[in-house]
């Protein structure tokens, strides 16, 4: 048994704290064999493996990554011997699986790590990482997959579905996520979006926030709302500009027929920043309690600033707003010149899910200071990019 108390997925998918259990080689074989009827223990390329039809299963226990890493980080060890087995299997026309076994109490889950990237690196006792949230997602939904920051694909699977997963009989596309994938295919081909072009486009469509100084976020909202409506996808995701009194201050609604499955927020972030502010902390807490989850959909962008090109764009932007009746006659041509973004290029996106298994990690309280009246502002969450793995459910990069 391990000695460090870390995050664990307990009965019912509830997050609990506890030390890792230690599984013997016999126990690991029995756990996989019980989940995959027909799998047998065998020797292949000099290693003890499990054989299932045309598949070679290499297995290891999922345990805590170790101090000083966050308590949600877990891993399996991949040895050079596994790479040798994978190369032999490829020559023999067999498929190799790198399978992680998670066992805590009565909870049994698996992680299927795509061997491709580890084989290319010629792994030598390296670690394949998995987070508590990856396991939680599998417990709740049966299967879950994502690609991590290093390009490794991992799929987590509940024990009752492992055999079906190995046979390739599980569809792994969330319809809501598919909406964003389709939107990205359009957005990421735009290249650089200039402030004047964006403002004119939003003005032609009478978008409410077309004259805001931080225009890039409102332009993203406008583009997403237009895309969803034009493609008839609002039964899966819809953007709400006007929030209902007494409901959550969130701009994404994920319907479930006539009801609401959950809420989310669409945000932009400068690609060089390490964190971005989120919503009111209490509102997110209530939303997770009521709906089980909350999604942040974050688009990172590269940025050029008007101040770096002499301020001409700032002058043109202010004059455009003046000509459209948004500024008084005595306006300043260089107003907001130090901060105005001249152009942005959307480069990547992430969908982050806040849920009961990672709520304690994502909600690092962030004070917004005090209001002009002297009263404290409401406490807001902060999204730290260093902890992304524990709530990342989808990502895409240009």
What would you note in describing this structure?
This protein is of the alpha+beta class and 398 residues long. It has two domains: 161 residues, no CATH class; 223 residues. The protein is 28% helix and 34% strand. It has a seven-stranded mixed beta sheet with strand order 3-4-5-8-9-12-11, with helices on both faces. Strands 13, 14, 15, 16, 18, 19 and 22 form a seven-stranded mixed beta sheet that branches. Helix 7 packs across helix 8. The radius of gyration is 25 Å and the shape is elongated.
| Terminal Cα span | 43 Å
Overall 3D geometry? elongated
Total domain modules: 2
Strand order in the sheet with the most strands: 3-4-5-8-9-12-11
* Residue share in helix: 25-40%
List unreliable stretches of 5+ residues: 365-374
**What do the pLDDT scores average to?**
88
Number of strands: 22
| Helix count, DSSP H or I runs of 4 or more residues | 11
Major β-sheet, in short? 7 strands, mixed
Our estimate of the beta-strand percent is: 25-35%
Secondary-structure blueprint:
Layout: E1 6-9, E2 15-18, H1 25-35, E3 40-44, E4 47-52, E5 55-61, E6 63-64, E7 73-78, H2 80-91, E8 95-104, E9 107-113, H3 115-120, E10 126-131, H4 132-141, E11 143-147, E12 153-158, H5 162-166, H6 175-187, E13 193-194, H7 195-204, H8 215-230, E14 238-239, E15 252-256, E16 259-270, E17 275-280, H9 281-291, E18 294-305, H10 312-323, E19 341-354, H11 359-362, E20 364-366, E21 380-384, E22 392-397
Parallel strand pairs: 5-8, 16-18
Antiparallel strand pairs: 1-2, 3-4, 4-5, 6-7, 7-10, 8-9, 9-12, 11-12, 13-19, 14-15, 15-16, 17-21, 18-19, 19-22, 20-21
Helix pairs in contact: 7-8
């Amino acid at each position: 048994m391990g000695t460090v108390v870390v995050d664990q997925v307990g009965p019912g998918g509830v997050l609990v704290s506890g030390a890792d259990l230690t599984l013997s080689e016999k126990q690991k074989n029995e756990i996989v064999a019980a989940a995959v009827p027909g799998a047998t223990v065998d020797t292949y390329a000099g290693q003890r493996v499990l054989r299932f039809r045309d598949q070679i299963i290499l297995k290891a226990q999922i345990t805590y990554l170790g101090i000083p890493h966050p308590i949600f980080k877990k891993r399996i060890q991949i040895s050079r011997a596994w790479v040798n087995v994978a190369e032999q299997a490829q020559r023999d026309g067999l498929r190799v699986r790198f399978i992680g076994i998670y066992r805590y109490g009565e909870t049994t889950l698996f992680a299927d790590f795509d061997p491709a990237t580890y084989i290319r690196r010629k792994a030598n006792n390296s670690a394949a990482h998995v987070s508590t949230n990856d396991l939680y997602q599998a417990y709740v939904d049966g299967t879950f997959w994502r690609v991590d920051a290093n390009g490794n694909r991992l799929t987590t699977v509940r024990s009752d579905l492992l055999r079906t997963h190995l046979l390739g009989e599980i569809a792994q596309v969330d319809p809501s996520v598919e909406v964003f994938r389709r939107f990205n295919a359009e957005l990421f081909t735009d290249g650089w979006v200039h402030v004047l072009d964006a403002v004119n486009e939003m003005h032609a469509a009478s978008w409410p926030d077309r004259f805001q100084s931080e225009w890039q976020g409102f332009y993203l909202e406008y583009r997403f709302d237009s895309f969803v409506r034009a493609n008839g996808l609002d039964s899966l995701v819809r953007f709400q500009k006007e929030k209902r009194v007494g409901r959550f201050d969130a701009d994404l609604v994920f319907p479930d027929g006539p009801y609401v499955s959950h809420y989310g927020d669409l945000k932009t972030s400068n690609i060089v920043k390490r964190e971005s502010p989120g919503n009111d902390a209490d509102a997110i807490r209530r939303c997770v309690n009521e709906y089980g989850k909350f999604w942040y959909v974050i688009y990172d962008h590269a940025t050029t600033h008007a101040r770096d090109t002499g301020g001409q764009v700032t002058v043109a932007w202010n004059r455009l707003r003046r000509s459209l009746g948004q500024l008084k006659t005595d306006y300043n041509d260089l107003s907001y010149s130090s901060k105005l973004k001249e152009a942005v290029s959307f480069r990547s996106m992430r969908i982050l899910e806040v849920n009961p298994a990672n709520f304690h990690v994502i909600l690092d309280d962030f004070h917004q200071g005090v209001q002009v009246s002297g009263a404290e502002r409401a406490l807001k969450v902060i999204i730290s990019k260093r902890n992304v793995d524990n709530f990342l459910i989808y990502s895409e990069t240009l």
